[in-house]
Amino acid sequence: xxxxxxxxxxxxxxxxxxxxxxxxxxxxxxxxxxxxxxxxxxxxxxxxxxxxxxxxxxxxxxxxxxxxxxxxxxxxxxxxxxxxxxxxxxxxxxxxxxxxxxxxxxxxxxxxxxxxxxxxxxxxxxxxxxxxxxxxxxxxxxxxxxxxxxxxxxxxxxxxxxxxxxxxxxxxxxxxxxxxxxxxxxxxxxxxxxxxxxxxxxxxxxxxxxxxxxxxxxxxxxxxxxxxxxxxxxxxxxxxxxxxxxxxxxxxxxxxxxxxxxxxxxxxxxxxxxxxxxxxxxxxxxxxxxxxxxxxxxxxxxxxxxxxxxxxxxxxxxxxxxxxxxxxxxxxxxxxxxxxxxxxxxxxxxxxxxxxxxxxxxxxxxxxxxxxxxxxxxxxxxxxxxxxxxxxxxxxxxxxxxxxxxxxxxxxxxxxxxxxxxxxxxxxxxxxxxxxxxxxxxxxxxxxxxxxxxxxxxxxxxxxxxxxxxxxxxxxxxxxxxxxxxxxxxxxxxxxxxxxxxxxxxxxxxxxxxxxxxxxxxxxxxxxxxxxxxxxxxxxxxxxxxxxxxxxxxxxxxxxxxxxxxxxxxxxxxxxxxxxxxxxxxxxxxxxxxxxxxxxxxxxxxxxxxxxxxxxxxxxxxxxxxxxxxxxxxxxxxxxxxxxxxxxxxxxxxxxxxxxxxxxxxxxxxxxxxxxxxxxxxxxxxxxxxxxxxxxxxxxxxxxxxxxxxxxxxxxxxxxxxxxxxxxxxxxxxxxx
Length: 737
Fold this sequence. Notes:
It is found in: Cytoplasm, Cytosol. By secondary structure, the protein is α/β, with parallel strands linked by helices. It has four domains: about 20-200 and about 380-390, Rossmann fold, CATH 3.40.50; about 205-365, 3-Layer(aba) Sandwich (Rossmann fold), CATH 3.40.50; about 415-545, ATPase, nucleotide binding domain (Nucleotidyltransferase, domain 5, 2-Layer Sandwich); about 545-715, 2-Layer Sandwich (Nucleotidyltransferase, domain 5), CATH 3.30.420. Helices cover about 40% and strands about 20% of the residues. Helix 4 packs parallel to helix 5 (about 130-140), helix 5 runs parallel beside helix 6 and helix 22 (about 640-645) crosses helix 23 (about 650-675).
């Protein structure tokens, strides 16, 4: 024991040094009503008794300042506490709206007070709506909160308010082991929870031997003996006001019939209290010879009254908590204290719907004597709380940390899995094949379908719908949620309307085609359509080298030459959706004819079709094949044969590829001088063959200010499908087009 005492003293010394040797902990205690003051007063006395450690500021608000509830602020003054601030925060009306308005009024007034006081910590008690306003204000103003009596369970709205304050509070003082476990279950930090017991028990357990007869005589009459009177204290149940008023009426009827001297305390300020007072007056309680109706009894005297009563009846927490310390019989009515830990002295009448039930309970309980209960405290709460306050390190981070229990890994709850399962249907309309794929948020092609691209519009659209419906059905089996459909197609596209304006010669019957409407109607999904070059750029922006790059250009080197331009992270479409037709940049005034009808376009030099054309010319002149090459009679000459011949030393083939690379490089230089990107990405089957040639032309022909541009080869296996998927995955998550 000595060891632990010394250890505690050393810790307090260290904390004082951390907080500053001359710094006293400035504690603000805010009290709202007679009930919470009975719990806070012992702590306030303890703080006041140690001025070398603490500075105490007292704020009084709520029903303390209302005459109808006894002007109970006077007992704080009688206890010789200086009240720093009085805040009138109660909006009269005693209904649900008045409670809400009272919270709002407190929230309006408290910031000014807290700004002036600047406390290090605020002590808040319990579960009243006033306390919620206090805790909310302090939390939002970055003031540490110590919550008294958190973790307990009871009925009505008080439960919700108590737990809400718990989540706002930084430190917790609880009264029972169960309450401590509840706080831990609510993910509060165990190191910031103190199991101290109820502070009011520090008074209760030393109060019973004091002179009590004079107190009983003063409040109930000189002819009243100990254990021959009843104390009644009943409050409205805010979640069922109508029933609680009826129950109060039945209680008074039962007490009248029981015919014992009874001290009736007025209810608290909750919604419904005004109606309860009307019931008292309707039954003439204030003038009945057996009744004494009072607004307030000082706590010291109230202790003596309940300690020597024959019975206490009602639904106050005092009945199930403090009265147990004396073994006085208690009748707990209704649901207001449901869930509270109670001693054997408490008889519950949960469904107090008849006078006979309540009367029978009085007959069972009145005059009994039960063993004293120490469920809620052992009389040493205040020293523990003061020690806890001294241990608070003000240099610790203010932000609360919640101690969540370990959760079993569940793939459906994992963010990566969620992102993966958010998927798109990607459609790629090529000159030869029609492809549909399920593409995940991470760019994984989960499932792919390929068919030959039909020659007519009707057959092509029917096949697109059939393949998309099949893929959408399969998506359910592979745990993918389809967000929409993205379509990549050759030609000029109006992406706003989802219409193919003009197609390339590679895809027949594909001009002025509305793709969005029929596919969206059939699948009930949003549909996006764009040019295949733009889609390649989008694929790079989301999954490839363009990720995080503000300005870059993608060049597709395949059957044709296309591309896309990303400027300030956005794709450029142009005023007539013709931007980034990079294959038709003219690099020679008298060059070969292009499929577009012009001459000298990049595509006329460097596309797969152009290389195939030159390869066929060489083959027709018997100048293509060299040693190490062979071709079957029926084999069609392609660009691949030209590239193979160049690798095997065919100088004619080398010259053609060099010219093609130079043409592409000149086109890239023009792009650099026009839009000044920081990155050029070469994509498609010919990219690896052109990358060095393009870099050489840039070094020879480009302005020095753009020569530092990076030129890289795409690492994406299927940019057309990934780009079509990006149309969906980007725009459905950003909500921007």
